[in-house]
Amino acid sequence: MNRKFMIWWLIFVIQCALLGVAYYYEAHLFFWANDITYISSGILALFFLTSFGTGYNTYRGKESTDTYWFIADSKMSLGMIGTVTGFIFMLVATFNNLDPSNIDSMKDAISNMATGMSTALLTTLAGLLGSLAVKLQLVNQDA
User: How would you write the chain as a 3-class SS string?
Assistant: First the structure.
């Protein structure tokens, strides 16, 4: 086996171990419950698909393709789409039926704001981490 593939394998195993630790601490449930768009789940799926493709190309000794770099950058874009969607949800759901004199209305507004903000921040986090993880593998392949 070639050296680049062994390095890719080490990077991938470390990344999977980190995902395993996150799973142990039930981070996946936190993401699932607080990301109303479920974009972070799609980013995770793209991580695995891109990782296997990168590993296959590294094993075969193929040069890195622009497609995988595009997918890595697209993960950041998906995270930003989730951010914008979360902010839109927060603003529309919060200020549509806001009645400052009604305590229940204000509680609902704060709850909607928290839901929108959590979606915005979680999708950004997932996009950045997913992109970084694949870019580490691609840098190894291009070296």
Answer: CCHHHHHHHHHHHHHHHHHHHHHHCCHHHHHHHHCCCCHHHHHHHHHHHHHHHHHHHHHHCCCCCHHHHHHHHHHHHHHHHHHHHHHHHHHHHHHCCCCCCCHHHHHHHHHHHHHHHHHHHHHHHHHHHHHHHHHHHHHHHHC
